[in-house]
Write a structure and sequence with these properties.
By secondary structure, the chain is mostly helical. Helices cover 70% and strands 0% of the residues.
């Protein structure tokens, strides 16, 4: 069964009261998939992405075709399952609870409880991908993402690394993109770079709960890491 069929099954199995808000949806995910930890991780991640995407769109005030296209780039949703995604999206958008409440619930559902949780970083990366899809990161989107990162317990330096991955490299410090201190010996930079590439291999991401459809983000992330490393490497050769 695909992740989207599982989400559809989840929606059909939850009680009518689960449509009253995010608290009930979170509890329903825990209950319905209690016997399958891996599937629950994947469903939880997808629900978090859908819900927070909807809240970000509401915070920004408009849903653009670029944002819809970006969402479909990272989530290849079968046509027959699209209505289930739409139901979750509309629930989140219409819920009176604010986005901070959603972010807190999603952090409790998907997070490890530790700072810089990898899965919560994955969610934040996905939100960045959608937010910048029209070619600019708007102020309201920037404020939304920054606040979500705080609720997710993403440290400021780590948040800047995530942010830098989504900037044009001409505007970003390659050392910040890699999350390593400027002035480190090149051998240390290379070692750190290789660790980043290994940690962002698609198999690693799937292993921590990302749906296979989400690998677009892994590809984009590794591309930014590679570009930053190549810039530093060129500088080291010229020195």
């Amino acid at each position: 069964m695909s992740i989207w069929a599982s989400i559809g099954d989840f929606i059909n199995r939850v009680s009518a009261s689960a449509a009253s808000g995010i608290a009930d949806v979170v509890e329903a995910v825990r209950t319905v998939f209690e016997g399958d930890v891996e599937l629950r991780r994947r469903v939880s991640f997808s629900v978090a992405m859908i819900a927070l995407s909807a809240k970000m769109a509401k915070a920004d005030g408009v849903v653009t075709q670029d944002e819809i296209r970006a969402f479909r780039e990272i989530f290849e949703i079968p046509p027959k399952e699209a209505h289930n995604v739409a139901r979750l999206y509309d629930l989140a958008k219409q819920d009176v609870a604010g986005f901070e409440t959603y972010a807190q619930r999603m952090a409790g559902l998907c997070g490890s409880g530790h700072q810089n949780c990898a899965m919560l970083e994955d969610i934040l990366d996905g939100l960045f991908h959608i937010a910048k899809s029209d070619g600019v990161l708007h102020e309201r989107e920037s404020l939304f993402l920054k606040r979500v990162s705080e609720i997710f317990r993403i440290e400021e330096a780590h948040y800047q690394t995530i942010l830098s991955r989504h900037l044009d490299l001409g505007d970003a410090d390659p050392y910040v993109v890699l999350g390593i201190e400027r002035g480190k010996p090149f051998k240390d930079v290379r070692k750190h770079y290789l660790t980043l590439v290994a940690n962002n291999h698609p198999d690693k991401l799937i292993g921590r709960g990302l749906p296979e459809e989400f690998i677009k983000i892994a590809t984009t992330r590794v591309a930014a890491i590679n570009a930053a490393y190549e810039m530093i490497e060129r500088g080291a050769r010229a020195a």
